[in-house]
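Quick look at the format.
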Amino acid sequence: MRDVLTTTAGDGRRITLRPLRAEDAPRVQEACSDPEAVRWLGGEIINERYSLEHAHGFIERALCGVGNGSHMSWAIAATTTDELLGHISLIGSGGELTDTAALGYWAHPSARGTGVTTAAAAAVVDEALTPTSDGGSGLRRLTLRVAVGNLASQRVAEAAGFMRTGRTRQSDHLVDGTFTDEFTYDVLATDPR
């Protein structure tokens, strides 16, 4: 899988998907301690007390996973400034990134609503599902789970070509201690994109 991808966001800005770097840690910390991220992704680690140390650990784990082939991870960055705008990853099923992978993403608060995450998701879907003979990664299927109330994430998934396939009840434990349903999505290499 290519470690650098480029695309254009909905607001017209060029973005680069590249490996995370240690200097991204302050922006990771800001994103992962933001109330909206905490609301949907929060738990023991992602919360209002998310520290710079947590951010460095996140970056190290992401790079380790890429190194061992279990997943792919990209910083979503502004091409002109290299500023981190978000993160997107594919985690391989069964610990290998060879057939099916789960997509995950988040956006820095300053990048929300700009189309950056949608553009990044579409680029990753295209890279992952394009056959190896055509220069892609040749995966067969991508999956995604989104909390029912997380409308922004649902819009990203659907714009990137994912189809809603079902609903799992009370499957997502939110940081406030409640449980919510999740929509399940997938996209196949054979689906039109």
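Next, a different chain entirely:
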Amino acid sequence: MHDLTIRRPKIEEARIINDFFEVVIRDTFKKNNIDNLVDLIDIEIIDKQNQLDQDFSSNGNDKFFLIVTSNDGIVGSICYGNPNDLIIECTNGKLQDIPEIGTVYVHPDYQSKGIGSMMIDAILKEMKSKDINKFCMDSGYKTAQKVWCKKFKYPEYYLIDYWDEGSDHMIWNLNVDDYIK
């Protein structure tokens, strides 16, 4: 893992980053046994592409991305920005002013190698440097929920059967200083 670099994305990389989103999102849906939700997959891909566009058009002020590159190309992404509508709705607006960390994706060939933790550490340091002391996260993917529960413990908001029977949604409300290394 010596060839990994974490950095800001370049606008000329937009196409390859968007291709990366598509690979990871399709893999995530498959691993969560929801790959039959083709329309939702397409919506998720477009949403991530729009978030990347927000980063480029605002120079990181609306959405702030970091990517991880290796000799193989883009292998990870993470961003922070305004919380998504689902977080605002499910918390009755209580987290509307708390930045959300999202788009935490690691290429399937690079998962379980510490890249996600590396990205969380980097984005938290970036947030701290901008005097951002709180953040929130959410997840409806069972595979990601296991990771986030291990790293961040139990969520503040646990919405049972939100997506369907047995498909919960979780929202964390956290302090940057509790997780910065």
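Residues 43 and 89 are 19 Å apart (CA to CA).

See the schema section for token definitions.
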